[in-house]
From TrEMBL:
<dbReference type="InterPro" id="IPR050950">
    <property type="entry name" value="HTH-type_LysR_regulators"/>
</dbReference>
<dbReference type="InterPro" id="IPR036390">
    <property type="entry name" value="WH_DNA-bd_sf"/>
</dbReference>
<keyword id="KW-0804">Transcription</keyword>
<comment type="similarity">
    <text>Belongs to the LysR transcriptional regulatory family.</text>
</comment>
<dbReference type="InterPro" id="IPR000847">
    <property type="entry name" value="LysR_HTH_N"/>
</dbReference>
<keyword id="KW-0238">DNA-binding</keyword>
<dbReference type="GO" id="GO:0003700">
    <property type="term" value="F:DNA-binding transcription factor activity"/>
</dbReference>
<dbReference type="Pfam" id="PF00126">
    <property type="entry name" value="HTH_1"/>
</dbReference>
<keyword id="KW-0805">Transcription regulation</keyword>
<feature type="domain" description="HTH lysR-type">
    <location>
        <begin position="2"/>
        <end position="59"/>
    </location>
</feature>
<dbReference type="InterPro" id="IPR036388">
    <property type="entry name" value="WH-like_DNA-bd_sf"/>
</dbReference>
<protein>
    <submittedName>
        <fullName>LysR family transcriptional regulator</fullName>
    </submittedName>
</protein>
<dbReference type="InterPro" id="IPR005119">
    <property type="entry name" value="LysR_subst-bd"/>
</dbReference>
<dbReference type="GO" id="GO:0003677">
    <property type="term" value="F:DNA binding"/>
</dbReference>
<dbReference type="Pfam" id="PF03466">
    <property type="entry name" value="LysR_substrate"/>
</dbReference>
<dbReference type="GO" id="GO:0005829">
    <property type="term" value="C:cytosol"/>
</dbReference>
Length: 306
């Protein structure tokens, strides 16, 4: 019979690519781990891993078995967590992923959660929308806060208030107004947010420029809003980013300008896996976030807290 330990050992070997590294990760000797893999293959009657130089690679049978193994181990972890939480109450570590331009949603929500459940700890990961979705897929995080759009429908999404885009220019450009029109951006060298993979804010800004009859002069693309704002502060160029991203980081030597005739807004969303058990900590975090930042579901506009 196959037991859970064998499945965990097999998954560790696949993820480390070598029995030596897997044994070190599992804090066990190499020979018994090799024996467990051999025993698993004999029980199944198939070869799961083949040696390619110094690395072990999955066979076609191994790929299917690894995929099913991970699903089973995730379900087992969810079951254990659910049972423990029913017995012990809320505690443990909540893993959250967040796009940098959405960081403003975190501090108040985390503080409110800790006020109610002081035994909760946090593990935070940062990245663009693509990376956050990958972290969810690999179970490195339980909840993500991302900028829409997202390229897949495999996650449950809960929309958060929309955020207007603003232009940000170097302070030493000495712009005399508090707002700007899109036509005034035409000749500016632009530094734009661009995802590692997929479409997002970059395409929205480029399309908005096209709607106003010009092609922007894009000097730099980067997935990190703080890097872009720092470059603006040094006078490299201007950028167009969500308004909350500017107020989040308080970077000196920049000037924020409302865009009078822009029709685009940055949309944020909570995301989590549809078929995954949500820990009590995650469910409470989402509940607080929805309470602190309620929206009109039809229009995506913030509603005042009652």
């Amino acid at each position: 019979m196959i037991d859970i330990k064998q499945l965990k050992y097999f998954a560790a070997i696949v993820e480390e690519g070598q029995i030596t590294r897997a044994a070190k990760k599992l804090h066990m000797a190499q020979p018994p781990l090799s024996h467990q893999l051999k025993q698993l293959e004999e029980t199944l009657g198939v070869i799961l891993l083949e040696r390619n130089g110094k690395k072990l690679e999955l066979t076609e049978s191994g790929k299917i078995f690894y995929k099913k193994t991970k699903q089973l181990l995730h379900q087992l972890n969810d079951m254990i967590l659910e049972v423990q939480e029913i017995n012990d109450g809320t505690k443990g570590t909540l893993s959250i992923g967040c796009v940098k331009s959405c960081f403003s949603y975190l501090p108040k929500t985390m503080r409110k959660l800790l006020e109610k459940f002081p035994n909760v700890k946090f593990h935070l990961r940062e990245g663009d929308t693509f990376l956050i979705s990958e972290f969810l897929k690999s179970r490195e995080i339980e909840v993500g806060i991302i900028r829409l759009p997202i390229d897949t429908d495999e996650y449950q999404t809960i929309k958060l208030p929309s955020d207007p885009y603003v232009a940000v220019i170097p302070q030493h450009w000495n712009y005399k107004h508090h707002s700007i029109q899109m036509k005034d951006i035409k000749e500016m060298p632009l530094l734009l947010l661009h995802r590692i993979s997929g479409k997002g804010q970059y395409e929205m800004v480029v399309n908005e420029c096209a709607r106003h009859g010009f092609e922007p002069k894009i000097l730099c693309e980067c997935p990190d809003v703080t890097i872009l704002l720092s470059l603006v502060a040094e006078g490299v160029g201007a950028t167009i980013v969500p308004k909350s991203a500017v107020s989040n980081f308080q970077i000196p030597n920049i000037q924020m300008l409302e865009i009078e005739d822009s029709s685009i807004t940055a949309e944020a969303s909570i995301i989590f896996e549809k078929n995954r058990y949500l820990s009590k900590s995650a469910a409470n975090f989402i509940k607080i976030l929805k309470t602190e930042y309620p929206i009109d579901d039809q229009l995506g506009r913030p509603q005042p807290n009652k």
